[in-house]
Write the structure tokens for this entry.
Amino acid sequence: MTEHIKLFIPGPIEVRDSILQAQTTPMIGHRGKPFEQLFASVQRKLRLVFYTSKRVLVSTSSGTGLWEGAARNCVSDDPQRGVLAGVCGAFSERWADVCARNGKHVTTVTVDAGKAIKPDMIRDAIKARNEPFDAIAIVHNETSTGIMNPLADIVAVVKELSPETLILVDAVSSLAGVKVDFDGLGLDVVLTSSQKCFGLPPGLAFAAVSDRVLERARTIKNRGYYFDFIELDKFLQKNNTPATPAISLLYALDRQLDDMLAEGLDARFSRHARLAGLTRQWAASQGFALFPEPGYESATVTCVSNTRGIEVSALNKYLATRHLHISDGYGALKGKTFRIAHMADLTEADMQELFSAMNDFLH
Ligand SMILES: *Cc1c(COP(=O)(O)O)cnc(C)c1O
């Protein structure tokens, strides 16, 4: 086996050995008592991490599957209503596209890459319409540009102007690294994937879902089966899943949730903020600018503008010799930016190891 290369990319992120090991627990059937106990244990702890007393659906898929689920369960086929999507980079653009591919009418509010969606833009989009939108789709943390959108302020505008509009949040690269208060903010769907701030291997996705969503879903035809929230909720109530879940990943999740709660959620969020601060400082100290507009920088992934014109692929080639790996810019931002993830279980020592290796390359 070649030596392991530590991942500082925004998914899949580095996974600790003890979490990888938890996946080797002997297999059980998913229709027996031991599985029910495992699933109940996971559910109780997931609700703490999502700050909800409602329910957290668990899907054997990546987060993209729940994008489809959110569109199919929350948005009717009525073109007068449809979904309002904030677009500020590659992931938010793709979610809007996924809504359209599921036959939903999509209205977009678009900003340039590196900019955040502002509450007033949402205010204008809602006011420009006679009928309320069925739903609004917001990506909390746009991983392609390192932008964190002002979620609470956007939510306040929707609640004020269009209370019946369901609020759907992609928190794929923020949840468990940043507090996303589902019940406190009155959100309707908050979805995330296992391979980002949860620090697990890819393959599971989670969505907190409000009662309003299930009521809405009952009125909507053609929700499909695999991502039908009503079906998932029905089985969840019996601590089970409609189809065979990724049981090995659930063992890893159970273990990781224990570790997360032992660290303390507030401490976990502070650690993410601290590592983000260190990464921004490192960038400035080496003469790089940050790509996001000031005030909206992500706490989980830093998108650095390549203002020094370095060859990002050469940097990563060098980092590989030090058993480290960062991310190039996403799509059109390749070479113009590079991204450093500081999420999940990464520590200050991990970041210092990375900074010192990058400094050796730069000098
Ligand atoms: C990674 C990511 C996705 C896609 O999630 P998958 O688990 O790869 O399907 C969606 N949205 C954001 C913001 C992401 O960072």
